[in-house]
Amino acid sequence: MRVLVQRVTAAQVTVGGELVGRIEPDPQGLVALVGVTHDDTEAIAKALADKLWRLRILDGERSAADLNAPVLVVSQFTLYADTAKGRRPSWSSAASGPIAEPLVDAFAAALRALGATVATGRFGAHMHIELTNDGPVTLLLEA
Q1: Which one is catalytic: 6, 12, 37, 76?
Q2: pLDDT digits (tens, 9 = 90+) for 91-131
Q3: pLDDT in tens, 7-30
Q4: Which secondary-structure segment (H or E) carries 124?
Q5: Residue 123 known to be catalytic
Q6: Fewer CB within 10 Å: C terminus or N terminus of the chain?
């Protein structure tokens, strides 16, 4: 599993013009773009959610847990693109929807269980994500 984390001051997701997820941090929150590969498990999803929740990347070296910062979770299979050969990415390392969707849901549920306010995108949809990156701060977490 890969989670690309961005520190933000605002973020929202729309699908077909419909707002499906929004966070309004005060003052900061996180956007978590989540990619799943074939051998990921619910235990990995929970461990990465805990890591994200406690990661000290907000102002004053504080974590989302310290500030009760909201998190926008969006599935992103393209995090497993293989661009080593040719000009067309290979998606063979990305898990299929029936495997990936429950694990993205488990990641979001694990954050909620830790106390996070979580908004989500819509799995498998063409989404428009608007965010204001703060810093900018962007990190890649991997299991």
Answers
A1: 76
A2: 999 999 999 999 999 999 999 999 999 999 999 999 999 99
A3: 999 999 999 999 999 999 999 999
A4: none
A5: no
A6: C
Q: What contacts 22, CB < 8 A, 6 or more positions away?
A: 11, 12, 13, 72, 119
Q: Model's pTM, two decimal places?
A: 0.96
Of 78, 117, 120, 123, the active-site residue reads 78
Query: Please, which residues have CB within 8 angstroms of residue 106's CB and are 6 or more apart in sequence?
Result: 42, 45, 46
CATH of 2-142, one of 1.20.1300.10, 3.90.550.10, 3.50.80.10, 3.90.180.10: 3.50.80.10
Q: Are 16 and 124 in contact (CB under 8 A)?
A: no
pLDDT digits (tens, 9 = 90+) for 71-90: 999 999 999 999 999 999 99
For the chain, give every domain's residue range: 2-142
Q: Which of 6, 12, 37, 77 is catalytic?
A: 77
> By C-alpha distance, which of 64, 73, 56 is closest to 119?
73
Annotation says 76 is catalytic: yes
Asked whether the bond before 27 is cis by omega within 30 degrees of 0, the reply is yes
Mention every residue, 6+ apart, whose C-beta is less than 8 A from residue 130. 10, 11, 12, 13, 14
